[in-house]
Design brief:
The complex is a heterodimer. Chain A is mainly alpha-helical. Chain A has one domain. Chain A is about 80% helix and about 0% strand. The longest helix of chain A is centred in the N-terminal third of the chain and has 27 residues. Chain A is globular and about 55 Å long. The radius of gyration of chain B is 19 Å and the shape is flat. In chain B, helix 1 runs antiparallel to helix 2 and helix 1 crosses helix 4. By secondary structure, chain B is mainly α. Chain B is about 70% helix and about 0% strand. Chain B contains six helices and no strands. The longest helix of chain B is centred in the N-terminal third of the chain and has 24 residues. Chain B has one domain. Classes of the chains: A mainly alpha, B mainly alpha. At the A-B interface, helix 1, helix 4 and helix 5 of A face helix 2, helix 3 and helix 5 of B.
Chain lengths: ~120, ~140
Amino acid sequence: MTTAPFAIGLVLIATFIGAFGALFLKYGAEKMTRKSKLSFLNTRLLFGIMLYVLSSVFFLIALKNGELSVLYPITSLSYVWISLLSIKLLGEKMNFFKWLGISAILLGVSLIGFGS
Amino acid sequence: MNVHIHKTHPLAIISVMLATLLTATGQFLFKLGTANLTLGWDLFQNWYLIGGFAIYGISAAILVISLKYGELSVLYPVISLSFVWVNIISFEFLGEELTSFKWAGVSLIILGVTCIGFGSKSGIGDDASKMAVSQGEQ
């Protein structure tokens, strides 16, 4: 089986949507309080879940049309997007160890893809 | 600067790890449940699938609650541990081959998550975290 170019495009889009999904899960999580039991039903969290599901659907469609060895390395780009979004929108700071960790995970996920 | 949490509680990291273990268990149950899948009312008696969904839900809830107590740039990469569990479970219980590539990948992910844990600011003890912040700004 070869990987269709549109499958690569789909996975790329899935990583973007998934990264924003995680961002909104974080926004939503911060809206939760112990006082209000229903505060987990906030729009940000629900939007995050929706984006996450959407990215999974994109990924599953891509998987049907491509190989893991090609698609897994692309998937791991989501860790890079998350890091960038955390810096830009959450004011978090990266450091040498965090970038080293992201690089190792990127390589690790890619190797698992190659080995499948 | 803003209201977001800039330190990560070690318990948040541990609970995300637990969530990834549950996710992998859920995927394992899905795999068992889809082995002889028939569409129709039987789906509601497919306890593997139902169990898989339930565990997935619990794992997602743990994950979201954990996100409240730490940095996204620390907790999100920890989710990559699910690759590690899935490979171990597939090897142990499904008899799938653990190739040298997979071994290397699993090892690198563990190493990567360790590095990120090392690079994260601990949320234990306000004095310690204040010190970490001021050191970071120097």
